[in-house]
Amino acid sequence: MKTTSENKNYKAVDIGPLAELAKHEFIHPKFKTRDKGRIFIGELLQTTGAEISFRKLPAGTVISFLHKHIKHEEIYVFLKGSGQFQVDDDTFQIREGSIVKVSVDGSRALSSNSNEPLVYMVIQSHQNTLAAYNVSDGYRVEGNVKL
Predict the structure, then answer these.
(1) Burial letters for 95-114: b for 16+ Cβ neighbours within 10 Å, e otherwise?
(2) Is 142 part of any domain?
């Protein structure tokens, strides 16, 4: 992972190809467990309203515990592979292109049940803080586009 460009209003990073996610390893700060194929980038990006992570879950792997969050809802964006997702007592299929939002009160787990790894991104944000949907928070500004 490296910073590719930044100034006071942005930061751009490169985590490398998604096919190489397995090279990354996350060590859980509380349980000290090693989680290969997982990377968190909120701290690297210096985000102030969201955490973002990427994960490559090997084929046939089941996340064998349920979990919740105290303040963060999670949005799962599935980029490759397929599997199953559980929220509370509901279980449903997920695949490339599936997107799932889970509230803080939802107990969640997932599995990769295809012949290829399940690759996904998770965006955590503080629940009930969104001020507007779609483009209603944006506005045009004067300036020269230099692309």
Answers:
(1) eeebebebeeebebebbbbe
(2) no
